[in-house]
Specification:
Layout lengths: L6 E3 L5 E4 L1 H11 L9 H9 L4 E2 L13 H13 L8 E4 L6 E4 L8 H4 L18 E8 L2 E8 L4 H10 L8 H7 L1 E4 L5 H10 L2 H15 L5 E5 L6 E5 L23 H18 L6 E5 L14 E4 L2 E2 L6 E2 L2 E5 H10 L5 H21 L3 H18 L1 H9 L3 H4 L7 H8 L9
Parallel strand pairs: 11-15
Antiparallel strand pairs: 1-2, 2-3, 4-5, 6-7, 7-8, 9-10, 12-15, 13-14
The structure holds zinc ion (2 copies).
Amino acid sequence: MPRLSARVHLPSGRVARLSDEAARRAAAHARTPDVRPGGSMEALGILEAKDVARTDAGAPIDVRGLSLRDFHVLRALLVHAGVQAEAPAELPCENCGEAFRVAPSSLLEIAPFVDAELDDPELDAPFDHETAHVIPAIRVGTELARSIRIAARTVEEALPLFRAESAPTRITPALVVAMGITALGRERRASAIAKALAAAPGEAYQAVADCLYEAHYSARLVAVHRCAACGARNDLDVPWQREIPYEIGEPRKARRAFPDLDAFEAMVTSAADRIYQARRVRNIDLIVDDGVPACDDGGEPLLGCYTPGGTDATLGIPRAPEIRLFYRTFQAEHRHDRSFDVAAEIDETIDHEITHHLHHLAGDDPLDEEEHAVIEKEAIRRIGKREAARRAGRGLASELAGFVRTTWPLFVIAFVATYFTFCR
Ligand SMILES: [Zn+2]
Ligand SMILES: [Zn+2]
């Protein structure tokens, strides 16, 4: 188990000095039957114990006065260091379905908090508490609300949520206030908002929960697990257990149906006819693959990929260039995002792969280089610049983009023997 970092920076700009020893001592006392192990209440008990958390000047930190965002970073660090226990999550890989088991907090990148690198425009952006955030429609009385406002909350103000974390969830007016929801559409009364949320379609409520997570949790509190079977990136919440419930009420309603394989193939064929002609290319094989999608170096399942023509290394026969579309990635994207436009994305993917093809014929693919640069940059933002340099220094450059070098050649071989360009 790693030790608790002695000095960390929090999203608000505060600095906290932490004592590993005092925290572990406090953890032994914080465990009581009515407090959920690994939860927020337990974290509060530990952080408020003597000598655990101090300001840079050495004074005890007023933990209840911290913003929820700051508090959750401290809680994540406690779980990461094993001061608080976390049961491993057991999930299927989002890409290939293979089950994996991992304690998400063990994969948290803590260096940006330690090295004071909380300046990423996206990952460290403050939440906008003033504007109304768009959500799917939720019925409130006789009106449909399509937006939500969320105020900042301190630990003290969020205590009703912490207290409810070990009990089954029902959204009460007190919880609405504790979550910081100040308006749902035009409705401002907590009692009416609680009622509306309790009856909201699962999908709409999840959009609300996503907004609440964005407001009260740093975007850095995420673990990136790379699937050992297919290399796909699976992002997991840290801490895995959050005091704001992600699911209430009815199970999800069915979405607009996704085309079956035959219908999808027909869409791809007609799109390709049109796009090949427009871009003046021909003789590129077009394949719809309904197996486990290949992933890019960053572990993102691909919508499509391009493989240049050449001579097949094993068979020694010439092979045409190929564009491959991954049916299951389209399906997964559609599942995640209602607004995902399947036809438009097919068009864009084919067009994108043709660009790779033309670059390849020209002898230079700046698009491919750009894509690799984006993946590496994203990894560095998450891991932290100094930590990335340290890992590179230790010869762990492969951990940078999180290459799964041991496994990915297997599925590359399954496709083609020669050179393979990842894309989209
Ligand atoms: Zn997988
Ligand atoms: Zn590409």
